[in-house]
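Sample 1 of the test manifest.
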Amino acid sequence: MTDSKARRRALVLLSGGVDSTTLLAVARAEGFEPTALVFRYGQRHGIEVEHALEIARATSIEARVVELDLRSIGGSALTSDEIAVPRDRPEAEIGASGIPPTYVPARNTVFLAYALAWAEVLGIGDVYIGVNALDYSGYPDCRPEYIEAFERMANLASKASTEGGLRFTIHAPLISKTKAEIIRWGEALGVDYSRTWSCYDPLEGAGGGPAACGRCDSCLLRRKGFREAGVADPTSYAASGERK
Amino acid sequence: MTDSKARRRALVLLSGGVDSTTLLAVARAEGFEPTALVFRYGQRHGIEVEHALEIARATSIEARVVELDLRSIGGSALTSDEIAVPRDRPEAEIGASGIPPTYVPARNTVFLAYALAWAEVLGIGDVYIGVNALDYSGYPDCRPEYIEAFERMANLASKASTEGGLRFTIHAPLISKTKAEIIRWGEALGVDYSRTWSCYDPLEGAGGGPAACGRCDSCLLRRKGFREAGVADPTSYAASGERK
């Protein structure tokens, strides 16, 4: 499996977080040569794009940045400055008390629609997405029934599938894993989590650069995952977690 | 039905062509207060956006322009200068001889994904799209089974539908009509077709402005539609149809 020319290509949606970075390694382990799709969509934590691109460079993966504007649509704490990112929620509450304001309307549908366009142009039938329905924030577009419905729609949508014989398969291998299981899987595959970025609401760090807040749902799920996996979390969290 | 405050809102995908301009009138006739979504996606015939906005202004419809870049993906005569727009195809061949190079990969899926995001943020459950599976170019994402699959997926995708009780309905009232039937329907509803734009491949007109080529599939279907409807086509086609 070391000859990349013999491998089938796959598109991997890469955000630069724990899940999608593990996903990249899983796609490789499953025999694919990944091309990363990285979305700059006006997210509050635009820094994740730089992390995603650095991860792709460090692992010799081709990456394509898709520029799109979900900020003009808004409706989410991640794409509107008028909606606050929740902080310090009890771990048991995350994912159990309704869909939080960090939900971005139709985000995975928009991302997968662009992936479908790229997949068709590149002649790639396999698309990997790192959605997770267990240790997650309660987003509806992370559930198996959503992924299955998208896949079905995609195979009716395109020239490649209806005339060209290409079948689109949406791979979601993390969907029923806990964050700790994902991290242990990544560790076994040699993933370097020090390059990943999870925080929704970056603060100014001690050295002037961005630091993870340690208090948003995404930081809390990350911390819990590393703790439960028994793996050291390489993240430098802001000392106080207060905005300067 | 004249009190707009009593009407439910609907999103209407408006390109500025015959079908979507008729659609706008149909949505109104069906009792909705439309908001037009107009997509500037890097299309060869970007002029259609100006026509769409003029149609919205003239009919007092709120319009939102969605800016997105499908040109960087390419793979279509409409989004790549390296792929030619077919000309002078026999009418019987259009839609009957495979999917033509003017097919834009995943275009309707990308458009409907943005519409879903906007619909959710605006609290609108009804989305109108002017797809047509009869007098069309053979695009897979214009068929009823595709529209039904998208609607099903959309209702699994969003916070509004899974938690908020909003049901997304994709209305495609033109899907089984001929172009002539669409034009006659629009005539009955008072549509001013002189504002519409169909041509995929605009040429320089006599006055220096753009003129419809009269020879691409879209011009040919338009001409056929007006002819069969027994309605005068208000379009000024370029005299020679040759590029200057």
